[in-house]
Amino acid sequence: MFNLLKNVFPLNEVGKSRDEKEETLQLGACIASAQAGDTEAQCRLAELYADGDLGLEENEDMAYAWYLEAAEHGSTEAMCKLAEAHEDGLLGQCEDEEEAFNWYMKAAEHGDADAMCTIADAYYYGNLEVDEDEEEACEWYQKAAKHGHKGAKRMLRTFD
């Protein structure tokens, strides 16, 4: 996807401290894994760009692009990060609750219990551009609870 290695590593490593060399090696391994399609590495690289860590300059566009790449390959972590970006206006995105809801839904449909609970909360409280719907909320809390989400289990007690 992105040919980053040539832009990240200087040809001359002379004068670098041991920590800087270790960071360069860690970053190189992360980039190589991300480019090879490892979604965990793609999320880690996105996080590094978002935070400006391991010698990378902070770059919200690159962070978003790597989360998107990971999400397109089934990473629910990335889907939730994209949802958060749209919900809160992060990573260079405008606040867009409908788009946030769509990303949470994708993550929920892929089995992410936190996303299921967020969908349930949206229906329960009527946020993320959805109308309040206790029946729909209860269904999503049940799904999240079946996946072990403790908060969803607590919320289900309010429906008794």
Rounded to the nearest angstrom, the radius of gyration is 19 Å
Number of domains: 2
The proportion of residues forming helix, as a percent range, comes to 55-70%
Question: What CATH architecture of the largest domain would you give?
Answer: Alpha Horseshoe
Percent in strands: under 5%
Name given to the CATH homologous superfamily of the largest domain: Tetratricopeptide repeat domain
SSE string, helices as H and strands as E: HHHHHHHHH
Q: If you average the pLDDT, what whole number results?
A: 90
Structural class: mainly alpha
Descriptive overview:
- The chain is an all-alpha fold and 160 residues long.
- 67% of the residues lie in helices and 0% in strands.
- It contains 9 helices and no strands.
- The longest helix has 18 residues, at 18-35.
- The N and C termini lie far apart (50 Å).
- Residues 5-14 have low confidence and may be disordered.
List keywords for this structure.
single chain; 160 residues; mainly alpha; Serine Threonine Protein Phosphatase 5, Tetratricopeptide repeat; 2 domains; 9 helices; 0% strand; elongated
Describe the secondary structure blueprint for this structure.
Layout: H1 5-8, H2 18-35, H3 39-51, H4 60-72, H5 76-88, H6 97-109, H7 113-125, H8 134-146, H9 150-156
Helix pairs in contact: 2-3, 3-4, 4-5, 5-6, 6-7, 7-8, 8-9
